[in-house]
């Protein structure tokens, strides 16, 4: 028994950098886990994102992963028993994991394990294993870092794959052969690119090449899991970092061909058009500087997808993309449906932004009250989002043009504010209802009622009458007279 204890201590010393990081474990939950581990006579470690983010100084985590060399489920139950408020333990027997919440932190417990995979699934065959086995199965060296929660070496760092060095060098690499790592679980390819985008890290060259070699393996991953990673890339500070890597490794075309179809510049009779793929990435980066709204960022990503199917060359005017906003908005629904994304108001918001994306640009050259009223009416509460998108769409490198376009959009914004304060057309309903029209002219439901209502709305938007009951009522009487209707 003495020899086994000596051997275990020797292994831990070789795996550790001999330093302890008790400061990382100042949260009370770690003392409870340490005590529970001692009670069950098993070793436990905090591993993965918590440890990585501690060294990156990324702030307070919302979730913690605990590995037990033994039963993670039993450890979770023992921790819950020791905690003052006895939190409920959720057990996932299929995966051999358990989870509890403590002080707004989600803690997941799993037994140390080794894994093997079938070619057609990312769900592994799991066996009990050692801490080394568990570190081997991790996706990246920076996520294989572990801190001991055991009494005899509490806070010791166990770094089997030089993860600390990779953190310092800002490198993403796999613990084992990257072809095996990515083929076993292809979602790791998306995660590698997501971490590169979020952390501004570089993916090791061999690892990056392995992603390209295994790109087709992504097809076994559910659309929901892919979009979960993609959303994190979109929400990163500079989303183009992730999208350029997705494109370079041939992953992007496997789930978002509408975007990759925008790449390329055609030339006819010496006339070219801009590369709309790289333009789109610039727009997404621009909007990322001004908003964290995921769905507005999606709108920026998709605002030009209608240009690929509508691109034509006209000898008189050159390259055209007629109705690309309308076509693009229709493509949004099909894209969201295929990728198992929400088909609710979030999708409709993206559709609206894509459909209206050029309206303020056209308006900027001739800012009339009527045009502004119609824009505000059609956009409703999303007018500010639309203007933010249009301002992000300015990617010219000519400083004079850049300033001119922004000045024009400032004029549009000022006019929107002026018109809205005066006319109140945002989401307005005409002051005259269908019921009032029916009562006034003793009508049953008929076409003329809709005609009168539409005429009143158009008159208000054109500025011919105010958004006012009395003016609208007088207009109704005149319009009805033209239709041959008599007041009762």
Automatic annotation (TrEMBL):
Residues 277-364 form the HD domain. One of its GO terms (molecular function) is nucleotidyltransferase activity. Residues 200-260 form the tRNA nucleotidyltransferase/poly(A) polymerase RNA and SrmB- binding domain. Its cofactor is Mg(2+). InterPro entries: HD/PDEase_dom, HD_domain, HDIG_dom, NT_sf, PolA_pol_head_dom, PolyA_RNA-bd, tRNA_CCA-adding_enzyme. GO terms for biological process: RNA repair; tRNA processing. The keyword Cell cycle does not apply. Residues 45-172 form the Poly A polymerase head domain. Keywords: ATP-binding, Magnesium, Metal-binding, Nucleotide-binding, Nucleotidyltransferase, RNA repair, RNA-binding, Transferase, tRNA processing. PANTHER family: MULTIFUNCTIONAL CCA PROTEIN. Belongs to the tRNA nucleotidyltransferase/poly(A) polymerase family. This is HDIG domain-containing protein. The lineage of its organism: Bacteria, Pseudomonadati, Bacteroidota, Flavobacteriia, Flavobacteriales.
């Amino acid at each position: 028994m003495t020899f086994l204890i000596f051997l275990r201590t020797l292994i831990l010393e070789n795996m550790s950098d001999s330093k302890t990081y008790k400061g990382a474990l100042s949260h009370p939950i770690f003392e409870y886990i340490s005590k529970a581990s001692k009670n069950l006579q098993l070793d436990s470690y905090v591993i993965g994102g918590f440890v990585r983010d501690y060294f990156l100084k990324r702030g307070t985590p919302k979730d913690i992963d605990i590995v037990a060399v033994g039963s993670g489920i039993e450890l979770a139950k023992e921790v819950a028993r020791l905690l003052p408020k006895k939190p409920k333990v959720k057990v996932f027997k299929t995966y051999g994991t358990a989870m509890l919440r403590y002080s707004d932190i989600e803690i997941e417990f799993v037994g140390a394990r080794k894994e093997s995979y079938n070619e057609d699934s990312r769900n592994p065959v799991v066996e009990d294993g050692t801490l080394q086995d568990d570190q081997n199965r991790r996706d990246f060296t920076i996520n294989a870092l572990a801190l001991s929660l055991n009494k005899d070496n509490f806070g010791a760092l166990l770094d089997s794959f030089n993860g600390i060095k990779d953190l310092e060098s800002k490198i993403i690499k796999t613990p084992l052969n990257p072809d095996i790592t990515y083929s076993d679980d292809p979602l790791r390819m998306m995660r590698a690119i997501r971490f590169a985008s979020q952390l501004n890290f570089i993916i090791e060259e061999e690892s990056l090449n392995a992603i390209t070699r295994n790109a087709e393996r992504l097809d076994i991953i559910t659309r929901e899991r892919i979009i979960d990673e993609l959303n994190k890339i979109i929400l990163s500070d500079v989303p183009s970092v992730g999208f350029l890597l997705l494109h370079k490794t041939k992953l992007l075309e496997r789930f978002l061909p509408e975007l990759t179809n925008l790449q390329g510049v055609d030339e006819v009779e010496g006339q070219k058009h801009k590369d709309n793929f790289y333009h789109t990435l610039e727009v997404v980066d621009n909007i990322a500087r001004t908003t964290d709204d995921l769905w507005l960022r999606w709108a920026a990503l998709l605002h030009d997808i209608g240009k690929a199917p509508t691109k034509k060359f006209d000898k008189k005017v050159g390259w055209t993309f007629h109705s690309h906003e309308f076509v693009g908005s229709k493509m949004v629904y099909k894209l969201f449906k295929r990728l198992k994304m929400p088909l609710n108001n979030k999708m409709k918001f993206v559709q609206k932004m894509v459909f209206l994306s050029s309206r303020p640009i056209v308006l900027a050259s001739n800012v009339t009250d009527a045009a502004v009223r119609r824009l505000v009416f059609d956009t409703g509460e999303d007018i500010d989002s639309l203007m933010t998108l249009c301002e992000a769409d300015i990617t010219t490198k000519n400083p004079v043009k850049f300033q001119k376009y922004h000045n024009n959009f400032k004029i549009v914004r000022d006019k929107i504010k002026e018109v809205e304060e005066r006319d109140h057309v945002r989401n307005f309903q005409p002051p005259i209802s269908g019921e009032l029209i029916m009562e006034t002219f003793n009508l049953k439901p008929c076409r003329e009622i809709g005609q009168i209502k539409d005429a009143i709305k158009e008159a208000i938007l054109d500025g011919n009458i105010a958004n006012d009951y009395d003016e609208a009522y007088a207009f109704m009487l005149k319009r009805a007279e033209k239709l041959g209707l008599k007041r009762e």
